[in-house]
Design goal:
Blueprint lengths: L18 E6 L2 E6 H22 L37 E7 L3 H6 L2 H8 L3 E5 L10 H4 L6 E5 L10 E5 L5 E4 L4 H4 L4 E5 L4 E6 L10 H21 L2 E6 L23 H12 L2 E3 H5 L16 H4 L6 E6 L6 E6 L11 E5 L2
Parallel strand pairs: 3-4, 9-10
Antiparallel strand pairs: 1-2, 3-14, 4-6, 5-6, 7-8, 8-9, 10-12, 11-12, 13-14
């Protein structure tokens, strides 16, 4: 058979498709466009399935440079400053830590770090533990003979704050005098001879900002509470305030402007607190320091990449600023999704 050979089909079995005759080294075959189309489609599907299975992009062309991921920019906590600007030596050390569950934090050896840090007062937030369920390891600590606890009245394992002191305060109160807020166990206030110490776990506005309106009410009423205290004695406010004040205070500011902790409303609430005569101690000492965060989500290796937020603060009355020595971010301490912060001051 030659290339010019013609096939004749009976009328009853006539096929209406293009016929391609191939003759190679004496072997002839017929391939229709229909069979060609099916094979091409199968090949295309196989190639596509392979791409989806391995989840990777096609290999780069030989010799083409692949962009390396940027190395994370880490924050290094500098040596502690133990004197105020006027030369006085620090005589008060306060540490604050959102432990994200007290019982789990104790199991992660959080108390070992506390003993090494040796603060005069230890303030804890998000303890998530009723007083009846507190671990013996912390209730029996001889370093802090005076211990105070607050928890949610309605939800066991929710919210909660604590204050552990070496020296007994003159007086300790719980909440801010508003039942709507106080039932969640978010504030403890201790009165010392020359100042008040307030530790707080400020409400989170929640996923989808479902509690933003409540948070705005909290901000107004909490500021009023602090202002009333400040009229009596200057104060130190410490804790998880659940707001990154400025763009420098979180890694991804552009993508978080509508997320809890960085909304315009929450940031304005913090602005109003500062306008009432209070000072963010860290920014007072380190106004341009970037990449200094106190919280990292557990997801996507955020802590190792230092993709975080500065949510934990020491806020001081203006009258205490002359005695400010240092405001520290202890970002090497593990045991929670927050790290501890420490204040050195003269009182």
């Amino acid at each position: 058979m030659t290339k010019s050979s013609v096939f004749l089909f009976p009328a009853a079995t006539r096929v209406y498709s293009c016929v391609r005759v191939v003759c190679l080294r004496g072997v002839c075959g017929i391939r229709t466009s229909e069979s060609m189309s099916k094979r091409a489609k199968k090949n295309e599907q196989e190639a596509g399935d392979g791409d989806h299975d391995n989840g990777t992009a096609p290999a780069a062309k030989k010799g083409k440079k692949v962009k390396e991921p940027e190395a994370p920019i880490l924050y290094s906590d500098p040596p502690d400053k133990m004197n105020s600007k006027d030369g006085r030596a620090a005589n008060m050390k306060i540490t604050s830590w959102n432990v994200d569950g007290l019982r789990a934090w104790v199991k992660k050896k959080g108390l070992d770090w506390v003993r090494d840090e040796a603060p005069d007062v230890l303030c804890l937030q998000e303890t998530k533990c009723a007083e009846k369920s507190l671990p013996d390891e912390i209730t029996s600590m001889p370093e802090f003979p005076h211990k105070y606890w607050a928890g949610s009245d309605e939800k066991e394992g929710y919210s909660g704050v604590a204050m552990l002191c070496k020296t007994e305060p003159l007086k300790v109160t719980y909440g801010i005098g508003k039942e709507e807020h106080d039932k969640e166990g978010r504030v403890i206030t201790a009165e010392f001879p020359t100042f008040f110490l307030v530790t707080a776990y400020v409400p989170n506005s929640g996923r989808g900002l479902v509690r933003l309106d409540y948070r705005k009410t909290w901000d107004v009423e909490f500021k009023a509470y602090l202002s009333d205290l400040d009229k009596r004695k200057p104060l130190v406010l410490c804790g998880d305030l659940n707001v990154a004040h400025e763009e420098i205070d979180l890694k991804n500011s552009k993508g978080n402007k509508k997320n809890a902790g960085f909304t315009a409303e929450e940031r304005e609430g913090f602005n109003q607190l500062l306008a009432a005569g209070f000072t963010d101690s860290f920014r007072e000492l380190y106004p341009e320091q970037a990449n200094a965060y106190t919280f990292w989500t557990y997801m996507m290796n955020s802590r190792s990449k230092n993709v975080g937020w500065r949510l934990d603060y020491f806020v001081l009355s203006s009258a205490l600023l002359p005695g400010l020595c240092d405001s520290k971010i202890r970002n090497q301490a593990m045991g929670s999704d927050h790290c501890p912060i420490t204040l050195h001051m003269v009182v």
